[in-house]
Amino acid sequence: EVGKALEDCRRELNLEFRKMDEVVLPPSLWRCTALQRLQISCKGPKLRSLPPDIGKLSELTVLIVSNNELECLPEELGSLSNLRVLEADNNCLTSLPSSLSKCSKLEVLNVANNKLVSLSPIQGLEMLG
Fold first, then answer.
1. What are phi and psi of 76, to 5 degrees?
2. What is the pLDDT of residues 1-21, one digit of tens each?
3. 0.90 exceeded by pTM
4. Three-class SS string for 18-78?
5. 3-class secondary-structure state, position 86
6. Is 17 helix (H, G, I), strand (E, B) or coil?
7. Comparing C-alpha atoms, which of 95, 97, 61 is closest to residue 80?
8. I want to staple 62 with a disulfide (CB 3.0 to 4.6 A). Which of 26, 37, 75, 103 is the partner?
């Protein structure tokens, strides 16, 4: 059962969804506040959005949501003050949340193969380079 596995998660979690009609992230995921690395991949229907609850994962350092159909990322990403790696390549992103500028520890940002028209939210991030 996914819910029980999530409650036991400590530091790293790879969620892989296969052959589902719709990808729904389980509510128990947001109680994994000690989680440091989260990867969400889908074989079949793709993830279309990340809920604002992502901001509750305050210890998150790595977030990988590549190869989905994300059209936007929630502003709550800005509350992930420990985030060092964000991989969101191969999605449908047209912009980045302005709150991303608050992620001062961000070292790796991969947003290749999206529909981005501006990278202005990350212009002040010194660790990126």
1. -65, -15
2. 455 555 556 688 887 777 666
3. no
4. ECCCCCCCCHHHHHCCCCCEEEEEEECCCCCCCCHHHHHCCCCCEEECCCCCCCCCCHHHH
5. strand
6. strand
7. 61
8. 37
